[in-house]
Please model this.
Amino acid sequence: VAAPRPVLIPNADFEDSSSNWDFSAARGVARVIPEAAHSGNAGLRLESTSDDSDAFALGPRIPVERAVSY
Model:
């Protein structure tokens, strides 16, 4: 049995600001700011702006192969 492959998400830590991420479809507010950092210098803060919507960000497309464990 092969070991699972890692899934590499470009700029997953938001250290390169918002590159590779799309906030245009978000109904809430999406910002890359130092105060949201878990480790490093930046992190993503998502805030909903109404009671009936969620805040979200779209990440880059990640190529995957059928029948492969990740």
